[in-house]
């Protein structure tokens, strides 16, 4: 205990008033209040998402496992990191001892890594589903999904172990930032740049490459289908009334399936873009204004960074009708009524059909859950 108080006193003695004075008391109070709202929204939204995904069969599928991992990481960020951010804005220093000064940044960087890797895994799921569907059932088996999730957590936290034990940078109080972060070790080494490249740049590039490929595949597929339809029409192959009716029904189902796949893909893209919007401003601020000439720019960057932990549930509500229904059921309805989300009537009302046997893509889409016509559960369930 005495050592902890000594560390706290050392931290207080190293504070540079000239740096902290660049943030006005009013601005820091505003930041603390906004961070508090973000924390409450993030705790409620992410917990509700996990409950809805676990209890509602309609939205419990392969990709939901990665969504749950993402929500848990964001929930832990709100519960274990943001309270100390609020304290830092309020007191303008670190007053929680040396142990937490190492643990809190360790959790902060780890949860950020898990969040981005979870988004990358969801995007990879979409890419394989759309561009290499023949691989899907082999890749997304239950044990493979579990390994992917475990890897995302172990990698995000494991790559920080050298910093935690002080052999590649160290977690300590940064007097310039006024909070605990990664600082150079006794040999002048720091892991900040490497962590940024490995845990941010590489997953972001993977996501961008996957989406470029997804857009290309979808565009090419639509072109081929239009050409095929025109070819059939021009050759008079649909000269029978019943054939025309069957073809129209098939085209309608395929159109609904493609529209739903595209809508879900856009939702995942929105999650990634929101991540970039939340993380890039503070990164730019640290590089372009390292001496804090524009405090509002830095505070805005911090608030956007914290908002990343609560924005995903909002995206689900805005862009996905199934998640809205699952949230409403989890909040307002008894557990017995949650199974209503799997009813035929509910599916038809939202444009889905169990009789679509042309493709099993919709069985494993984000926010969907299908049953194979043969009575076998969809892959990865």
UniProtKB/TrEMBL annotation:
Top-rank taxon: Eukaryota
Subcellular location: Cell membrane
Ranges where the record places region Disordered: 228-252
Major localization class: membrane
Biased composition (Polar residues): 232-242
Domain G-protein coupled receptors family 1 profile, residue spans: 45-316
Membrane protein topology class: Multi-pass membrane protein
InterPro entries linked: GPCR_Rhodpsn, GPCR_Rhodpsn_7TM
One GO term describing the cellular component: plasma membrane
Pfam families: 7tm_1
GO molecular function terms listed in the Swiss-Prot or TrEMBL record: G protein-coupled receptor activity
Biased composition (Basic and acidic residues): 243-252
Sorted UniProt keywords: Cell membrane, G-protein coupled receptor, Membrane, Receptor, Transducer, Transmembrane, Transmembrane helix
Membrane-crossing segments per the record: 27-54, 61-86, 106-124, 145-168, 194-216, 267-287, 299-319
Family named by the database record: Belongs to the G-protein coupled receptor 1 family.
PANTHER family, alphabetized: B2 BRADYKININ RECEPTOR/ANGIOTENSIN II RECEPTOR, G-PROTEIN COUPLED RECEPTOR MOODY
Protein name listed in UniProt: G-protein coupled receptors family 1 profile domain-containing protein
Organism: Leptosia nina
């Amino acid at each position: 205990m005495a050592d902890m108080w000594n560390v706290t006193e050392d931290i207080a003695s190293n504070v540079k008033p000239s740096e902290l004075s660049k943030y006005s008391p009013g601005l820091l109070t505003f930041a603390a209040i906004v961070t508090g709202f973000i924390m409450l929204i993030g705790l409620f939204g992410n917990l509700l998402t996990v409950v809805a995904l676990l209890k509602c069969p309609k939205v419990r599928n392969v990709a939901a496992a990665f969504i749950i991992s993402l929500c848990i990481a964001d929930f832990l960020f709100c519960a274990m990191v943001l309270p100390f951010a609020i304290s830092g804005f309020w007191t303008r220093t670190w007053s929680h001892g040396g142990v937490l000064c190492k643990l809190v940044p360790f959790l902060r960087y780890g949860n950020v890594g898990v969040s981005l890797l979870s988004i990358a895994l969801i995007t990879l799921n979409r890419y394989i589903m759309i561009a290499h569907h023949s691989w899907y059932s082999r890749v997304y088996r239950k044990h493979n999904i579990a390994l992917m999730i475990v890897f995302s957590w172990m990698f995000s936290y494991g790559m920080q172990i050298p910093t935690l034990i002080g052999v590649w940078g160290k977690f300590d109080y940064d007097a310039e930032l006024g909070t605990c972060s990664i600082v150079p070790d006794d040999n002048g080494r720091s892991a900040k740049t490497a962590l940024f490249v490995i845990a941010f740049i590489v997953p972001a590039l993977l996501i961008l490459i996957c989406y470029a490929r997804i857009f290309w595949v979808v565009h090419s597929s639509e072109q081929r289908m239009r050409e095929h339809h025109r070819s059939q029409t021009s050759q008079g192959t649909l000269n029978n009334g019943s054939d025309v009716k069957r073809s129209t029904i098939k085209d309608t189902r395929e159109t609904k399936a493609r529209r739903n796949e595209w809508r879900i893909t856009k939702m995942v893209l929105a999650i990634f873009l929101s991540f970039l919007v939340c993380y890039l401003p503070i990164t730019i601020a640290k590089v372009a204004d390292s001496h804090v000439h524009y405090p509002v720019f830095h505070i805005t960057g911090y608030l956007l960074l914290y908002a990343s932990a609560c924005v995903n549930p909002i995206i689900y509500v805005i862009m996905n009708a199934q998640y809205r229904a699952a949230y409403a059921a989890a909040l307002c309805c008894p557990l017995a009524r949650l199974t209503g989300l799997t009813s035929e009537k509910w599916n038809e009302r939202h444009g889905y059909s169990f009789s679509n046997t042309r493709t099993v893509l919709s069985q494993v889409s984000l926010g969907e859950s299908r049953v194979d016509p043969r009575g076998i559960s969809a892959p990865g369930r």
